[in-house]
Write a structure and sequence with these properties.
2 domains, Arc Repressor Mutant, subunit A, 5-stranded parallel β-sheet, 7 helices, two-stranded antiparallel ribbon, Rossmann fold, alpha/beta
């Protein structure tokens, strides 16, 4: 499963829900502006459980977009080290969007979110109903295309990771049973086949022509 790198623009956003990241494969970097001299105690306490997977990066010097340039540098450095990583810039600053667009164009997984709760994995892990969980699983499997798990054990591990270890063994088993019951997943001995819906691509109606 991909490592999710969380790069927080602390000048722009001071998240109060870092605990949502616990249990998943996340590495957190909090970028602090040169003039930010105080760090809220609740933020420091929220990061402690992550140990070496979380760090603060204090910007030396100030200037227009100084912190943004640092985040861009670290995304590039991390992408070179882990080209299969997924990079989440947590900021309300739309100035990051051209960078995100470029990263996607060269097959680097990146996204800007305004809140930690908007990270796709976090959204999936916080689904409540069976229908929401099934929809999340089906959507994830469709997007995997040819890389879908091919054994029962691997699929079970994939589901566990998808919900960032928040589901009990019993809940995972029930979810798997529901996928089989709905004939979305077909299990023969230990082998897995799929009967997933096709991606629905919206059709564009033909342009109207003036016949007069």
């Amino acid at each position: 499963m991909k490592t999710n790198y969380i790069l927080i623009d602390f000048e722009n956003i001071q998240p109060k829900n870092l605990e949502l990241l616990q249990g998943g494969l996340f590495k957190i970097k909090v970028f602090i502006g040169h003039n930010q001299t105080k760090l809220p105690l609740e933020v420091a306490l929220s990061l402690q459980p992550f140990g070496s997977d979380a760090e603060y990066i204090r910007i030396e010097g100030s200037g227009p977009n100084a912190l943004d340039f640092h985040i861009a540098f670290y995304v590039g450095q991390l992408a070179a080290e882990d080209p299969n990583g997924y990079f989440h810039i947590i900021s309300k600053d739309t100035g990051f969007d051209p960078l995100i667009k470029h990263l996607k164009s060269i097959k680097i997984f990146a996204q800007r979110e305004k809140d930690i709760a908007d990270i796709p994995l976090i959204k999936i892990s916080n689904t409540n109903t069976v229908e929401e969980k099934i929809d999340a699983v089906v959507d994830n499997l469709i997007k995997r295309k040819a890389t879908k798990p091919r054994t029962y054990k691997t699929l079970l591990g994939t589901l566990k990771s998808l919900f960032i270890n928040k589901l009990s063994d019993n809940e995972l088993s029930n979810l798997m049973d529901e996928l089989v019951k709905r004939k979305l997943v077909i299990i023969t001995e230990d082998k897995v086949n799929y009967n997933l819906p096709d991606l629905q691509i919206p059709t564009i109606p033909p342009a109207e022509t003036d016949s007069t």
